[in-house]
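By convention, the token line describes the chain's fold. To illustrate:
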Amino acid sequence: MIYLDNGATSFPKPEPVRRAVSAAMACCGNPGRGGYPAAMEAVGRIYGCREAAAELFDCRPEQVVLTSSCTHGLNMAIQTLVKPGDRVVISGFEHNAVTRPLHGLGVQIAVAGRRLFDPEDTLTQWEDALRRGADAAVFTHVSNVFGYILPVEEMAELCRVYEVPFVVDAAQSAGSLPVSLGQWGADFIAAPGHKGLLGPMGTGLLLCNRLPKPLLAGGTGSESQNQEMPDFLPDRGEPGTPNVAGIAGLAAGIGLVRRMGLSRIANREHWEAKRCAEGLKKLGFPVFSGEYQGGTVSFIPRMDCEEAAGILGKHGIAVRAGLHCAPLAHESAGTLKTGTVRISFGPEATPEQSWAFLQAARHLL
């Protein structure tokens, strides 16, 4: 199988990640609940993951709250910054992990910047929306549907200029592009552990520049007499028994990413996505591609998208089709009625993968 669905999750997990998960299950107890060796082994592995994440994302280890997913982190961040009736500015390419929590809170949503691969338009619309007044802003770093890399540094700077607290969704960029809590000055950055960071599913990170509002309350192994959640990081955001095995695997995945290097990963993914886009255009398919694009590209087949993905699957190519949990992005691109077929490369992207995909794509003609 040629796996081109890394936008959903990295697969298969690297051997060092699998080994780390297995080892943690064999030797780790419950961290923070005892001083015996198995418990302390778990403490060490969890802190090692925080340290690795802090070095990658330009923050301190205690600012790394370990979550069950990027969605978990986004919900925590949004509920911290946003209250019912607030005006919240978002980009035109947000995932349901952003839009559904906002709708659930009953906020006024202002969508700013809906043109693909056009950072100038994004920034113009973004500043205009902030100038009109905003209580918070939430924006993705990279569109999960089209691979558009938004100008996050400039968007973050505008949020600081207009004194608007903001959250960055790094679901499609963590592990391939630079993500910096320190330089961006975000209140929160949410990232999954299982995509670009190569960790197990059921892991994630919330990078915090302020105390989050806990989604859950419970034991943390600290301040047990206090019936409020601790008022310090990371304990405030981490009630209950942590996913020690998953966190150990995530630490191993982050280590692999750091050894490979972000620029090398980004270049491999970008060039293979570009190669596929050019090949699809030659075959006559409508393709969404541009200069500011990561390792993801979408196209419209001459049939139902799900049917097309099924045909590709029968020829050994794993892709995703439909709306990709991001109807707002499809609305912005004009593909809400049709959806798209999405190809998303991982750190081991190769020309051979692109060639195999393009050969299979001929069966869609």
Observations:
- The domain at 2-11+261-364 is CATH 3.90.1150.10 (Aspartate Aminotransferase, domain 1).
